[in-house]
Amino acid sequence: MNELLKKQKRYFHTGETLSLDFRLKQLTRLKEAIQKYEQTITDTLKKELHKSSFEAYTTEIGIVYEEIRFITKRLSDWMKPQRVPTPLTHFGSKSYIYPEPYGVTLIISPWNYPFQLAMSPLIGAIAAGNCAVVKPSEYTPEMSTLLKTIISEVFPEEYVAVVEGGVDVSQQLLDLRFDHIFFTGSVSVGKIVMAAAAKHLTPVTLELGGKSPAIVDASAHIDLAAKRIVWGKFLNAGQTCIAPDYVFVHASVKSLLIERMKQYIEQLYGHKDTYSRIVTVRHAERLVRFLTNGIVVHGGTYDIEQRWIEPTLLDDVTWDDNIMQEEIFGPILPILTFGTVDEAIQMINDYEKPLALYLFSEDRDVQQQVLQQARFGGGCINDTVVHVANPHLPFGGVGQSGIGTYHGKASFDAFTHYKSVLKQTTKFDIPLRYPNFPNALKWVRKLLK
Ligand SMILES: NC(=O)C1=CN([C@@H]2O[C@H](COP(=O)(O)OP(=O)(O)OC[C@H]3O[C@@H](n4cnc5c(N)ncnc54)[C@H](OP(=O)(O)O)[C@@H]3O)[C@@H](O)[C@H]2O)C=CC1
Ligand SMILES: CCCCCC(=O)O
């Protein structure tokens, strides 16, 4: 790995990766390779996570195509040096900002969207002119190997390379000095990554997780709230970092919401053969232990060996239950109630800042109050999850749910250093700046106030 890093550093310093034409060509070649392997990608997602073709395209492959399209169209503008105003105190000079790639970047990706969460950051790294080493998760080994096959077919390893392996490989990579680390995964591992980066003062982007609430107030459109919460929660069997982790519903509408959510679970996820599986038996065993929390009001059955857990609703859950102490990351939805919006915001703000927050309310005052008073990475009003697929919206967490953002221009920014340069004239020199100028202090006080 050390040799690979040296090769990439040498290649980066040739300047090959810097031109617009080079970057656009690499993104086009990547897209063509993905098109060539599209069916294999779909089959691999089905084999390892039992993802339907529909979910494979809408939450993995299609999102990657859209990122490439969106960025390719705008990259020329983003790369241009930007002329900015210069204050009178610097009369005669001109000021510019030059976007510059960090250099050689490390991308560590998780298993839940194993294709998209490796490719989306890589697209940003390429667009910004970097080299990249990608370390996919060992929990989806066939996707990891497929990513290596695709990447090595398109790019020389001195430019972009996939390094397969588990925790030991990640840790060996983290010991090396990269110019930027982009990590997607759990909060606990995010802390390990940041500690490793601190040794070299390497900038990081951390896309982590948390307990993202779905708040449903008394004014909400209950039927749509139920449908959209069920859709977002049980997508990929709940293994989605921005899935609604729990429902926080006004007591007056809880029963109606539960009744409608039951209907939509059957309608949208009632067919076992098209429903996703939990990534490993160990992850399934962790989730099944939550079924003793509260009261199962829908679902609750499972087959550990098949890694299948029925979409489940838990009522009468308390904040002290185990399921409320960690990110669920599975198809179990606890339901808690609140009396006033103030109380709901207070409870949520007492927790770590979530990656996402969803508010279902038709009351504009409530919408404004939650947006202003609740702290969270990003989210939706009257929907769930879909904000992630808008390339105009930077995606990321805050506090324990993450550092930095990406998607669209934010992906270019995540892998770019903005270098500020002032170009000074030599046609004249302003004596006022020098300490020997008579009454210098009096003059500068007139200019700087
Ligand atoms: N913000 C976001 O966009 C997303 C966040 N997540 C979060 O990720 C978590 C689930 O994904 P999961 O893959 O289990 O997350 P992990 O943090 O367990 O793993 C993420 C990556 O880090 C590697 N890794 C694991 N342990 C270590 C370690 N001790 N040192 C260095 N690297 C390590 C993993 O390798 P390996 O898997 O090979 O062990 C994997 O490549 C959830 O908390 C979820 O919220 C998930 C998806 C998106
Ligand atoms: C729908 C796609 C979501 C990808 C990031 C996550 O796990 O939340």
UniProtKB/TrEMBL annotation:
Work out whether the entry's keyword set contains Zinc-finger.
no
UniProt feature coiled coil, ranges: 20-47
Residues annotated as signal peptide: none
**Can you cite a GO biological process for this protein?**
aldehyde metabolic process
Q: Which residues form the Aldehyde dehydrogenase domain?
A: 5-421
Q: Which UniProt keywords apply?
A: Coiled coil, NAD, Oxidoreductase
Q: What name has this protein been given in UniProt?
A: Aldehyde dehydrogenase
